[in-house]
Amino acid sequence: MEKNVQQNPTLKRQLNPMHVWAIAFGCIIGWGSFINPGKKFLPNSGVAGTAIAMALGALVMMIIAFSYAYMVPKYPKAGGEFTFTKECFGKTTAYICGWFLVAAYLTNVPMNSTAIGLIVDGLDGSADILKFGFHYQIAGFDVWMGEMLLAFGILILFGVLNILGVKKAGIVQTVLAGLLAVSVLTLTISALVSSKASFDNIAPIWGFDKNAAIEAATNGTYTSVDQFAHSGSMGIASAILATFAIAPWAFVGFDTIPQAAEEFKFSYKKVSLIMLVAIIFGCFVYVANNTIAAAALENWPDLIVESSSTPWLLLEAAKRLLGVPGMILVGVAVSCAVLSGIMGFYLASSRLMYSMSRDGYLPEFFGRIDEKHGTPKNAMIFCIVVSLAGPILGREALGWFVDMSAIGASIGYFFTCASTLVTMKRFKDGTPFLKIMAIIGLIFSLGFMVLQLIPIPGLSGVHFGTESYIMLLVWIALGIVFYLSQRRKMNAK
Question: CA dist 446 to 65, 312, 401, 417, Å?
């Protein structure tokens, strides 16, 4: 007779503080921090706008992290924000929070997988080693069978590794996160001491209107990027907000820590420090990658305007600074970022779905634990299958995944801060400082959602694109289907 969810073994406590830091940092820094200098950061915000936006984003995430540090010891269960919301606001609200968190975490896995082919092609130099078999175009980008097969293999391999035990996954994650941090630090030092990098190259420091510049280049009226540079108070504000609006995506990962709370083998008092260190490391990598890409390439605006697809500016910058060793250094860093992101978000997504299933919010199938390895095997298999969509959609879908992750993370932050205020009142504890931090976090979380979803006149490049709205509507519709099918079981639980 098949065992039900309650009869299944529980999750095993095998994660130490370094494992958990590596999960958070590895999730914060993924492929986007390496490709987005050419795709979003430099054109939308420039070096100055991106640095300010990321510093502000890190500060806001630290403020929000105080709420997480307070809530984890109160409800130390897998599910994190979902569990907090369920205890404070009830079942339906918890389902909404949990469903959007699945989007925040799970979209990051296929987003990272789309980078694998570009890593190989960029380091190979010929840019065609994986371009074989059938191919097609999505959003103007060629998707090749060779690239899909490699990405499929990586996604399946790391999914299986997650199934085989959280301790093994934690060790691999720690190695990857360590190599990532060392590689970026080495590249930063190289840029600082090299005569080939100059702050004279970083203009326009607030970015430029990428679409207008490309249209002018197509029409033959483009002469210099300066004519499209963001300037004036409105232009500078738009430049900063364009990147600040996706801070929830940029730093999503520190909040994966509560998802593995049932697997900690250390005191929950260490959670706040682990979160803060992960956020600081993440902010450094974003700003360093973006600044190095601009400082080492005096013609970076022209590369963005003239390229038929998103240019990998950081790789070109590393090549100019250090030659082949620089390319290898970037290759190691981005590979570690991609693989640690896949590993970490697999873990967070599967634990969240396991928790939702255990409480009747998702089908019982997702709540079963592998008896031998103590991991949510079925939820992990589902995550693998969904993630295989990434290589099929291609790299130009990166921006759509970023938007989906950003809105999901913002909703999770909002409910965590709100739950903190409710829990403080319920238990009559906490401090005035924590209350202020929770209120500020609540306001910023709501602000992120407004910036992402509502077009604001004069602020270009901030809100969702058409494809992102479509993906959001599809995800909402799918969530409604699951909710209606599970409502009876959810209420029974």
Answer: 16, 33, 20, 11
